[in-house]
Amino acid sequence: MKKIIIDTDTASDDAVALVAALRDPTLQVLAITTVAGNVELPLAVKNALLSVERAGTYRPPVHVGAPAPSSASWRRPTRSMGPTGWGTWGPWGSPPSPRPPATGPTPWPAMPAGGRWNF
């Protein structure tokens, strides 16, 4: 089984990829890290948590990452993914906002001695 960590901005395209990875019997998702990208960080976290719930399998930890790039300016692209990150429905606007996730993100663990994690 291949062990992976997924780093995502969790708009609709990444949500589908998360569900697929969690349901793939050849993969083990060890953790999910969220960053700002197609959506702001709070939405990326919410959408990742909802994607894990929707997968209906095991629940890897979801960690809160960077709210913006560390070396460049960032502005969220509002046209591509809509206000919730789930896209738009053409002339009908955005889909309704999903319910809040049942769980919250996992706090980051302290860096182990030696400065690296071994999986």
From TrEMBL:
UniProt KW keywords: Glycosidase, Hydrolase
Superkingdom assignment: Bacteria
Compositionally biased region (Pro residues): 93-110
Cross-referenced InterPro entries: I/U_nuclsd_hydro_CS, Inosine/uridine_hydrolase_dom, IUNH, Ribo_hydro-like
Gene Ontology terms, MF aspect: hydrolase activity
Inosine/uridine-preferring nucleoside hydrolase domain boundaries: 4-93
Keyword Ion transport: no
UniProt name for this protein: Nucleoside hydrolase
Species name: Bittarella massiliensis
Species classification: Bacteria, Bacillati, Bacillota, Clostridia, Eubacteriales
